[in-house]
Write a structure and sequence with these properties.
Blueprint lengths: L10 H5 L14 E2 L5 H9 L3 E4 L3 H16 L4 E2 L10 E4 L4 E5 L8 H8 L4 E4 L3 H9 L9 H12 L3 E7 L5 E10 L2 E9 L4 H15 L4 E3 L5 H5 L3 E3 L1 H9 L12 E2 L10
Parallel strand pairs: 1-3, 9-10
Antiparallel strand pairs: 1-4, 2-4, 5-10, 5-11, 6-7, 6-12, 7-8, 8-9
Helix pairs in contact: 2-6, 5-6
Length: 269
């Protein structure tokens, strides 16, 4: 281990030994303190995403609750070295909620009517740091830690992490979403809104842009009734892992600004 608590070897080497398909459906698949950009990308490629502990209490909670599963071999554990592995839990839930880009995110008739005259515009990858910061603001527990944000910014610079921005007629950032692209899947980490429905519009726009780039699925990570309203359907974890490996890989979303009204074509009578 390095002094920063990161594995000295290629992170992909260790992550290749972790089999999410054998992990508990409702518990972490692994504990590993490495939040470096290469480790992060390798983990996503293997179907896992991180949930860092917000503080020492969260770290101790992880150890107390899950140590028996670690001891039984059900949860993988990286050699802790100077840093406790329980600072970061890596999840691969079963089932996994997935939004097919072919069907996209449903918008109500009320929202479609509103968008036609809203003056809102959307972009991709124009303001990744701002979207990331807005998603992290006022969230409790604070899982988007400084280390994780730093790695996500590096992955954005390298072309692996993407954002969508929604702005009002005055150019104010009012909503957005971001995630990491692996193959034909974009795994959604978080979204935010400062106006009603702005996050849903961001997600709908991202689905449209990612589909145009060859993307097939948006991974919503955690299943919930709200996520289902966004068009997500639960997919068995084994099937999700197959989606990550299914070619062809998608390209990045088109960054071109578009009026949000394009998501609300005129109704046919």
């Amino acid at each position: 281990m390095t002094a920063a608590g990161r594995p000295e070897a290629d992170p992909a080497t260790w992550w290749s030994t972790v089999d999410p398909a054998r992990a508990p459906a409702d518990a972490p698949a692994a504990f590993c303190p490495d939040l470096g950009p290469q480790a992060l990308l390798a983990a996503y490629a293997h179907g896992l995403f991180p949930l860092p502990a917000a503080d020492l209490y969260g770290e101790l909670h992880n150890e107390t609750r899950y140590e028996p599963l670690v001891a039984a071999g059900a949860i993988a554990l990286h050699d802790p070295g100077p840093t406790s592995p329980y600072t970061v839990a890596w999840w691969s839930p079963d089932p996994r909620p997935v939004i097919p880009t072919a069907t996209g995110v449903p918008l109500s008739r009320r929202l479609r009517r509103r968008l036609r005259n809203s003056g809102w515009t959307t972009t991709a990858d124009h303001a990744f740091p701002e979207v990331l910061a807005a998603c992290a603001a006022d969230r409790r527990p604070r899982w988007l830690t400084d280390d994780l944000q730093a790695s996500l910014r590096e992955l954005h610079t390298a072309g692996h992490a993407h954002s969508v921005e929604v702005r009002d007629g005055d150019g104010e950032l009012i909503g957005g979403a971001f995630g990491i692209r692996v193959g034909a899947v974009l795994s959604l980490d978080s979204m935010f809104h400062r106006r009603p429905d702005a996050a849903r519009v961001a997600l709908a726009d991202l689905a449209t842009r990612f589909a145009a780039a060859g993307g097939r699925h948006l991974d919503a990570q955690w299943d919930s009734p709200h996520i289902r309203t966004l068009g997500a359907a639960p997919v068995p974890r084994a099937d999700y892992l197959t989606l990550l490996r299914t070619p062809p890989a998608a390209g990045p979303p088109d960054p071109t600004p578009h009026p949000a009204s394009r998501l609300a074509p005129p109704e046919r009578h």
